[in-house]
Write a structure and sequence with these properties.
Helices cover 63% and strands 15% of the residues. The structure holds zinc ion.
Length: 171
Amino acid sequence: MIYKVNYKIHVCAFILSAIICVIFFQCLLTNLYEMIAICELSPIKGILINYTLISLTLVYVMALIHELIHGLVSILLGGKVVIGFKWVYAYTKEVSNKHFKRFEYVLILLAPVIIMTILLLPVNHWITNLVIIFNIMGSTGDIVMSLIVLKHGKNSNIISNNEGFEIIYNK
Ligand SMILES: [Zn+2]
């Protein structure tokens, strides 16, 4: 069965992101206020530019690390990964055609959200707190795809392809 990363997956991921945003709203607000307070202390004028720049940099670095973790876990599980760029955003793509076991594929999908959350949570600084929340919100596509994969039998194999992934059923 071939799954394309189509609009349905994007819509589910967007709704899940919105739910996560509501759940973490208070935490998001508290940490954003801390960021704005730091910007107000900055000798460089233009608070708006300051915090827009900080936010964009945070999201960019976070997305890069997120993608590298996907790639690293794929490689550790025997896959082959290429790094591509969409505009300035980096992404990793599995190109080995390897038949991953179901749990391996879920591990590749969820590794960034699990590893980054576990590593950054104890730091409890506004920067790391914002990265954790942005990263969870940015991982909803991975979470939705994991749920789709987990719906299939545990002996299923999964192959990444250009547009999504393919599930191979095994008895
Ligand atoms: Zn991801």
